[in-house]
User: What shape does this take?
Amino acid sequence: MKAVTYAAYGTPDVLAVSEIPTPEPGPGEVRVRVHAATVSSADVTFRRGKDLMARMFTGLRKPKRPVLGTELSGVVDAVGEGVTRFRVGDRVYGATGDAFGAHAEYVVLPEDAAIAPAPEGVDAAGAAALAEGTLTALPFLRDVAELAPGQRILVNGAAGSVGAAAVQLARHMGAEVTAVASARNAELLRSLGATRVIDYGTTDFTALDERFDVVFDAVGKSSFGRAKRVLAKGGKYLTTVLSPGILMLSAWTRLFGRKRARISLTGLRKPAQKVADLALVKELAEAGALVPVIERRFPLDEAADAHRLVETGHKRGHAVLTMAAAA
Ligand SMILES: NC(=O)c1ccc[n+]([C@@H]2O[C@H](COP(=O)([O-])OP(=O)(O)OC[C@H]3O[C@@H](n4cnc5c(N)ncnc54)[C@H](OP(=O)(O)O)[C@@H]3O)[C@@H](O)[C@H]2O)c1
Assistant: This one.
């Protein structure tokens, strides 16, 4: 099968489209013929290998797993002995977790991995995109922020993968959404449910004369120290980006003060939790409450270009690899 592989950390030029053996499912495993898979900012971080914490997962000296890619959609094309959850021909979407491997024509996963029936009426690229954004945004908003109807939320980095999902989910949860992005994304964000869009090029949201129950920084470009000014009493500041500072602030604000800082490592949740979320996201997408936002689709052969787009830090929604099987 064809797969995007890398043998060393570095620029997108380290990526190669290679022929590698097609994996066979063992007992309790399913093989998914991948139709689409996102290239996420995590894939870019793992490919670069500059982050020591990331190398703990991917290999200290060189990559341990040659194929990146986590969020995918496709069709179950073979099942191992004893599999009961899926049958050949099922359309599925979800995430491979720390096994990676989605940037390939096939991937083998345990049947209890974070995959679930794909939403009807959403194409393969859209389903993979929905999995990427929502599997982070949903646990942040529902479990960490405990967002309630009528609350005011500000989403920073609202036009990215996590942000675009967060705007839609927050709106669905009945919150009033203020989105922060560059001016070119204002119309998109209004169409996704933001009541107001702030252009970070001209306005610093931390200087606003308003208060929010939740500030969700989906791209980790702000800080609790500055953002707490615009938090209401009891308000929560959430960031997706892990740092020693946010870990300390999270512990500190659990004990002291009325405004809290939080981080969550949503990618490390149990597959069963993600399966439940994928079922909810399927319902919301089928009801039209969630739409995938895709900046560009790339054939597998152009994976390096997809990495280059993600690396800009300014993609709109998602970058998705589409495989020949999706045609
Ligand atoms: N904690 C977890 O478990 C977890 C899980 C998944 C992802 N993450 C992390 O979450 C982060 C966000 O991921 P993502 O995939 O959503 O990123 P992304 O799609 O690459 O974000 C791109 C977006 O960021 C916006 N942006 C760039 N600079 C900005 C700024 N200064 N202010 C406001 N918006 C800005 C851009 O908007 P404009 O083009 O309008 O500038 C663009 O739309 C990554 O660091 C990722 O590693 C964490």
Remarks:
- Residues 124-144 form the longest helix (21 residues).
- DSSP finds nine helices and 15 strands in the chain.
- The chain has two domains: 2-130+269-326, 133-267.
- The CA atoms of residues 186 and 193 lie 11 Å apart.
